[in-house]
Structure formats: structure tokens, C-alpha cells
Amino acid sequence: MNVQQAVEQDLHASSQDHAARSVDEATNQYLTFFLAGEEYGVNILRVQEIKGWTSVTKVPNTDQHVLGVINLRGTVVPIIDLRKRFGLEGIEFGPLTVVIVLKIQGSREQTVGIVVDAVSDVYHVAADSINPPPESCGGIDSNFVSGLVTMEDKMVILLDLDELMGRGDSE
Questions:
Q1: 53, 69, 134, 171: least surrounded by Cβ within 10 Å?
Q2: Residue 16: is it exposed, middle or buried by C-beta count within 10 angstroms (0-12/13-18/19+)?
Q3: What pTM, to 2 d.p., does this model score?
């Protein structure tokens, strides 16, 4: 079983028994992934699914970080290159490249996919272990960061998905 399959299995198991388990209200689960050598996390309740990289249909006159759209069981889903969104150097997509399909909250709920280098793990994170983001996050807009947490002797950057997907490049 590869890492992506293990994470998908954990994701599926956690969504199945989420209602049945009495989980401490102050603990959340985060799906983590790699991007340019750094590990990032998103709240697992926002993750709809994880897909291997497939080609997209290009849409004219979109921001450069929007690679295009895919049809996901009848829903048109925009696909965002997170490297481009963060202003990082692009790379060739490989066998570990995945699309994480997420639910974004805003004026209306929206489904989007983000392209990341590789999926890492699922962590249980206590709310009181999350540190506020610094003013500067290595070139990434600190408004996109909801916090930082140390997991297994490494720093994980927790993303604010609504802020990340809701803001334009003009700001």
C-alpha cells in the first residue's frame, strides 16, 4: 500500500466513524501534504477526495494559478496549482503529484482542487498546540496561514483555505 492509498484509507475511516466517536472538541484532524519541501495541512473535514494528477481543460482568461477545470461526477471543479498560487517555482508533475479536492466556504460553498507535490499524513492536532502565524511566511502571504504546529519534530503550516481561495492576486 502506497502513502496515497494509506491516507485515503485513513480519510475514509475517519469520515465513517466521525459521528460515532466522541472526539475531544478541542482536537481537529489535518491532512498534510508536501509543496516545495515544506509540509502544509488542511482541515480534513474540508477534504472531499484525493485524486492522482490528470489533465485539465484549460479555461481562457483565468488567473495563471488556475490550471483549468475537471469534470468530477458532473461537477465542474477548478484546479489550482498551489505552487503558482504561492509564487513558487513550478515543477513537472510526477507519479506522486496529486489533486486534493476541497470544499471552500464563502458567499457560497464551492469545490476546488489543489495540485500538490505529494500527500503526507493525517494528524490529530489539539487546538492549544497551534501557534499563530508569523508576519512573514517565507514568501507566502501570511493571511493564507491559519497557524503553525510542530508534529513529530517538524513544523507543519496550517492553511486558511477560505482566505487562500477567496483572495485575488491584485491585493
A1: 171
A2: exposed
A3: 0.80
